[in-house]
Amino acid sequence: MNKKVLVSALSFRRSEAAVKFLQESGCELVLSQVERALKEKELLALLPGCAAIVAGNDEITDSVITASVPELRIIARSGVGYNTIDLTAAHRHGVAVTNTPGANSKSVADLTLGLMLALVRSIPRLSGKLHTGVWEKSIGGELGGKTLGIVGTGNVGREVMKRAQSFDMKIIAYDIYPRLELTEACGVVYLPLEQVLAQADFLSLHAPALPETVSMINRQTLALMKPTAFLINTARGDLVVEEDLSDALRCGRLAGAGLDAFISEPLERSCLFGLSNVILTPHIGASTLEASERAGLIAAEEVARVLQGLAPLHSVR
Ligand SMILES: NC(=O)c1ccc[n+]([C@@H]2O[C@H](COP(=O)([O-])OP(=O)(O)OC[C@H]3O[C@@H](n4cnc5c(N)ncnc54)[C@H](O)[C@@H]3O)[C@@H](O)[C@H]2O)c1
């Protein structure tokens, strides 16, 4: 049986246990040589003859899938988001698509809290100054007593809630599927989006990129927020209209932003570059050893199952 597997996901390549698992399952691994998601053209060159791909945020388009069948049987995303995979094309060709729900939620939640603290205490800005010998103090704020607004209370959102609870934050949220158990466990109050925007001192995005969520943070919605509020986006860049955010930050309509995801990645040019009240990180939410191991092992197991003729455990539709 053909067991050639293209491994693109960087996190997977870093997980010795996941690589070993696939090798011991008899798979021949083709490891991507670049430290970023693969473009359509690169996939078209690498995928033919492969029965599986362990994917990052690669451009897995209709053309890529059509050119890779019938050999290609599974696209195993080592991570959660699958907005760069053409699901319709995959399903049309009978190619399984899986992800690793929950595997990196704790890591993304840690980064989210890190961005909140870094913003409210101006840590990167003050550290940058001190590195040049400038001893400048500024008055920050505490998280305790502040209102955290969460958009999307799934795996990451609820980990963020747990952490925010320990900081004595008030938690409000908007989700199309409110979870009553979270109201009991974390004291979260679900509200309409407009009210969450208006009340939040920190607004943290944890919804997937869907037609209904793309550009949800724009000039109009930003205008509903407090000028003292901070926006955190560790979800998907497409949720935010970056030009509108940049305008809001420049004219003091918003206090600051912490962003880990961007409309175009890797981010090479941006209207957000150079703004002292913005912290930018290169999509590192899931980039921890722990999350890589967890996601890698789940993805490896999915590949092994499908190549053995078994149904995957975490299909996405
Ligand atoms: N920065 C990173 O490295 C990183 C890592 C993992 C996940 N993510 C991203 O974080 C986000 C959340 O991941 P997750 O694992 O918690 O996903 P999840 O599927 O567990 O949760 C998503 C939540 O969003 C809600 N939702 C769906 N449509 C909505 C809408 N229109 N409005 C409001 N809420 C809506 C869902 O009901 C669900 O509760 C995703 O965008 C994912 O791609 C980023």
TrEMBL record:
What sequence ranges are listed for the domain D-isomer specific 2-hydroxyacid dehydrogenase catalytic?
15-316
Tell me, what is one Gene Ontology molecular-function annotation carried by this entry?
NAD binding
D-isomer specific 2-hydroxyacid dehydrogenase NAD-binding domain location, by residue? 113-285
Instruction: Note the PROSITE patterns from the entry.
Output: D_2_HYDROXYACID_DH_1 (PS00065), D_2_HYDROXYACID_DH_2 (PS00670), D_2_HYDROXYACID_DH_3 (PS00671)
Q: Which Gene3D superfamilies match?
A: NAD(P)-binding Rossmann-like Domain (3.40.50.720)
**The UniProt record lists the keyword Aminoacyl-tRNA synthetase:** no
| Native source organism of the sequence | Acetonema longum DSM 6540
Q: Name one Pfam family in it.
A: 2-Hacid_dh
UniProt similarity note: Belongs to the D-isomer specific 2-hydroxyacid dehydrogenase family.
Recorded superkingdom: Bacteria
User: Keyword annotations for this protein?
Assistant: Amino-acid biosynthesis, NAD, Oxidoreductase
BP-aspect Gene Ontology terms: amino acid biosynthetic process
Q: What is this protein called?
A: Phosphoglycerate dehydrogenase
